[in-house]
């Protein structure tokens, strides 16, 4: 099942995409890549292994918030980047509205996007 998720396009973040924990109102980090079913985040701190999160994903354009998406996310994995020392965290979306999923799918597949 996870292998099916991994086949979807994952767009590299070419704009600032900030992730907030809705429960604590604290930043989690910045999106490194994202698909309609999950994301990899460069986190400011370690996450709870196998944790569940309510996240607000903020897409910025020209220093302004362009779009907010709210998702329920499950932490699948976490590792420390040996070069930066920062945590890299993989999340799977377990709750996202159909409208937000459709917008995210269109954004991921925009012409000229870069993929991982």
Give the tally of β-strands. Answer: 7
What helical percentage do the residues reach?
A: 10-25%
Give the DSSP E fraction (strand runs of 2 or more residues). over 45%
Walk across the major sheet and give the strand order. 2-3-4-7-6-5
What is the overall pLDDT average?
91
Shape: globular
User: How many angstroms separate the termini?
Assistant: 20 Å
Q: What assembly state would you assign to the polypeptide chains in this entry?
A: single chain
Order of helices and strands: HEEEEEEEH
Structural class of the helix and strand makeup?
mainly beta
Give the uncertain stretches in residue-range form.
none
Main sheet specs: 6 strands, antiparallel, barrel
Number of helices: 2
Radius of gyration: 13 Å
What does this molecule look like?
The chain is mostly beta strands. Helix content is 14%, strand content 51%. It is built from two helices and seven strands; from the N terminus they run αβββββββα. A six-stranded antiparallel beta barrel has the order 2-3-4-7-6-5. The longest helix is centred in the C-terminal third of the chain and has 11 residues, at 98-108. The chain is globular. The two termini are 20 Å apart. The model has no long low-confidence stretch (mean pLDDT 91).
Question: How do the strands and helices of this protein lay out in sequence?
Answer:
Elements (H helix, E strand, L loop, with lengths): L1 H5 L4 E2 L4 E5 L4 E9 L3 E6 L8 E10 L2 E17 L6 E10 L1 H11 L8
Antiparallel strand pairs: 1-3, 2-3, 2-5, 3-4, 4-7, 5-6, 6-7
């Amino acid at each position: 099942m996870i292998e099916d998720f991994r086949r979807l396009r994952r767009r590299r973040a070419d704009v600032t995409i900030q992730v907030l924990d809705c429960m604590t109102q604290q930043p989690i980090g910045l999106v490194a890549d994202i698909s309609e079913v999950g994301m990899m985040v460069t986190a400011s701190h370690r996450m709870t292994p196998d944790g569940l999160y309510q996240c607000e994903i903020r897409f910025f354009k020209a220093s302004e918030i362009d779009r907010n998406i709210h998702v329920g996310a499950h932490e699948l994995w976490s590792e420390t980047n040996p070069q930066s020392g920062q945590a890299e965290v993989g999340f799977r979306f377990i709750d996202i509205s159909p409208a937000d999923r459709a917008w995210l799918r269109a954004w991921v597949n925009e012409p000229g996007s870069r993929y991982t």
